[in-house]
From TrEMBL:
Keywords: Endoplasmic reticulum, Glycosyltransferase, Membrane, Signal-anchor, Transferase, Transmembrane, Transmembrane helix. It is a single-pass membrane protein. The keyword Oxidoreductase does not apply. Its main location: endoplasmic reticulum. Pathway: Protein modification; protein glycosylation. This is Dolichyl-phosphate beta-glucosyltransferase. InterPro entries: DPG_synthase, Glyco_trans_2-like, Nucleotide-diphossugar_trans. The keyword Glycosyltransferase applies. One of its GO terms (biological process) is protein N-linked glycosylation. It catalyses: a di-trans,poly-cis-dolichyl phosphate + UDP-alpha-D-glucose = a di-trans,poly-cis-dolichyl beta-D-glucosyl phosphate + UDP.
Length: 322
């Protein structure tokens, strides 16, 4: 009996030691929010090739809508999405001349001709409507979205994936979701496109292993970070300018799990969040590597929570970037 007690005590001690080690690793390996820009990232090129300074999210808005599109090696998939988005936006402006917009394509250190392809749309629609922010090195999707958001002029800011998986006209659905949020303290609100209604269909098409990974990821999101949002990863989210400034100023994760931290930050600040079903289609060419990307996101989820608990990461005030 004494022997069993000693074994239990040893196991408990090992568990406590392991937990301490995990907390220490999470705390000591935590990087700070990287809001600084390379000098080249402060400017965009006009259709004639001249450099102009990007505005700041701290400035008053001068457009109704900004669409931020993170793009990494998207020279092939992006034109379809841009054609659809700009056709919708141009038609909306014709129907309502007071509606103004801009599209910001953020080239996340691509190795292909993503910037060159995006610049074709700048020349076609003007610099006032389409701007290209080319990052000097790859930051990750979260880093690209943040840099584009911090450079935007819109009263409302939509992040949308370059693959066009979500039908762009569904912006009206997330706009309605944002409008219906009540109250919006300090005009802050977020409306998330959601694929949760498609989950049963996707489970039927996935392998058992990928289904297990999906449900495991959902559990980790719920347990460690975000409650009440069924689909945190849909790349179609609409922010009020005030909510974007508040959340992106505190964002640390720059890779695939950035959406989760963004919504975690929003819930910490008690920013109201709507979740709205959108049309979504699987597009070939995903940059996600099924097992390793899910594993990385799982680790990020655990570390997000632990780093805020240990104080390695703190919620920031909305300060200006360099």
């Amino acid at each position: 009996m004494d022997f069993l007690c000693e074994i239990v005590q040893a196991l408990v001690a090992l568990a406590v030691l392991g937990l301490i080690v995990v907390f220490l690793v999470a705390h000591l390996s935590a990087g700070m929010a990287n809001l600084t820009r390379h000098e080249k990232e402060k400017y965009f090129l006009t259709a004639s090739g001249e450099k102009e300074l990007f505005p700041s999210l701290h400035d008053p808005h001068s457009r109704e809508l900004s669409v931020v599109i993170p793009a990494y090696n998207e020279e092939l998939r992006m034109p379809v999405m841009l054609d659809e988005a700009l056709e919708y936006l141009e038609n909306r402006q014709k129907q309502n001349p007071s509606f103004t917009y801009e599209v910001i394509v953020v080239d996340d250190g691509s190795k292909d001709k993503t910037t060159e392809v995006a610049m074709q749309y700048t020349r076609k629609y003007s610099t006032d409507k389409v701007r290209v922010l080319t990052l000097v090195q790859n930051r990750g999707k979260g880093g690209a979205v943040r840099m584009g958001t911090l450079s935007s002029r819109g009263k409302f800011i939509l992040m949308a994936d370059a693959d066009g998986a979500t039908k762009f006209a569904d912006i009206e659905k997330v706009e309605a979701g944002l409008h219906n949020l009540n109250p919006k303290p300090e005009n802050m609100g977020i409306s998330c496109g959601s694929r949760a209604h498609l989950e049963k269909e996707s489970v039927a098409q996935r392998s058992l292993f990928r289904t297990f990974l999906m449900y495991g990821f959902h559990f980790l999101v719920w347990f460690f970070c975000v409650r009440g949002i069924k689909d945190t990863q849909c790349g179609f989210k609409l922010f009020t300018r005030e909510a974007a400034l508040k959340t992106f100023s505190s964002l640390h994760v720059e890779r695939w799990a950035f959406d989760v931290e963004l919504l975690y930050i929003a819930q910490c600040f008690k920013i109201p969040i709507a979740e709205v079903a959108v049309n979504w289609t699987e597009i070939e060419g995903s940059k996600l590597v099924p097992f390793w990307s899910w594993l990385q996101m799982g680790l990020d989820l655990v570390f997000i929570r632990l780093r805020y608990i240990t104080g390695a990461w703190k919620l920031q005030s909305s300060h200006k970037t360099d």
